[in-house]
Specification:
CATH architecture of the largest domain: Orthogonal Bundle
Distance between the termini: 47 Å
Largest sheet: none
Order of helices and strands: HHHHHHHHHHHHHH
Number of domains: 2
Helix content: over 70%
Strand content: under 5%
Length: about 290
């Protein structure tokens, strides 16, 4: 009798569940909202609308131009080649400093995981120089390296080196002992051990360090060009913003700022997200 009652209850529960509710198809709006790109695009559209409304209500282009005026000015500057040339001038310097910073961070990190003195050296140097603003070193860099790309590359290396090294070293230390023993059992030592065991296991932390280093380097470069823009030779986006501020062409200033933002969004959501999707998420290191 007890078994019969249990069967009757289970049948009643099963009959009470509507299969259409279990297998309900998501609507178009729900499918779109589940896409992270769509949600981020909606946020950007909302911010652009707020910008446009505030600029229209203020009605003073010398203080705050509308989003529409900024986009029109940006389109004109792109069409005549001004913004692409300035952006390329900035990106060339950025690539040099960013690459050099990553190479130095890799050397420091390998040294840190190889010896105790290397660990102490990296921790001490990071504690000393990571809080130091890179832009504060630019006057000294101009004295040491002169008016050229060398001074900008120097401050960019400072911006990239410490966050990348710190995150990479933290990622290496968080690798489980099981993986470490597997690598040693296979006879891996030195650089092969780092390349095949530590880097894949800690790639999430490494990628985070690369993102932070990129953000620090990009904002440091624009700030340096705003103050000492001619030291880059041709002048980049920061110098473009500074020149138009002196000319009181505020829509062009906002167009330069918008270009900086757009480049940042492209690098973050196209380059880094693609790398993350093909590595960290694919390997199951991140949900």
């Amino acid at each position: 009798m007890g078994e019969a009652r249990i069967l009757m209850r289970s049948d009643a529960v099963a009959g009470a569940v509507d299969p259409s509710e279990v297998e309900r198809k998501l609507g178009v709006v729900e499918l779109l909202w589940n896409d992270g790109f769509v949600r981020k695009a909606a946020i950007i559209v909302f911010l652009a609308a707020v910008w446009e409304i505030y600029g229209t209500l203020l009605d003073n282009s010398l203080l705050f131009p509308t989003f529409h005026d900024t986009v029109i000015t940006m389109f004109d500057k792109v069409r005549d080649g001004t913004i692409p040339l300035r952006a390329w001038a900035s990106l060339k310097v950025l690539f040099m400093g960013y690459s050099a910073g990553i190479v130095l961070a890799a050397l420091f990190t390998v040294l840190a995981i190889s010896t105790r003195i290397g660990t102490d050296f990296l921790e001490t140097m990071t504690a000393m120089f990571n809080p130091l603003p890179a832009i504060a070193l630019l006057p000294l860099a101009l004295i040491w390296f002169g008016l050229g790309n060398g001074s900008l590359v120097f401050v960019l290396i400072h911006s990239v080196l410490w966050p990348v090294a710190l995150n990479t070293h933290s990622g290496f230390k968080s690798v489980s002992n099981t993986l470490r023993m597997v690598g040693r059992n296979y006879g891996l030592r030195g650089l092969p051990y780092v390349a095949r065991i530590l880097i894949p296991a800690a790639f999430g932390s490494i990628l985070t360090g690369l993102k932070i280093g990129w953000a620090f380097a990009w904002r440091t470069l624009i700030a340096a060009e705003l103050v000492f823009g001619v030291s880059s030779g041709q002048g980049g986006l920061g110098w473009f913003i500074f020149e138009n501020r002196n000319l009181l062409d505020i829509p062009a200033v906002f167009a330069g700022l918008l270009t900086v933002i757009v480049i940042g969004l492209i690098v973050e959501n196209l380059i880094f997200r693609t790398i993350e999707r093909n590595t960290v998420q694919k390997w199951g290191l991140q949900t």
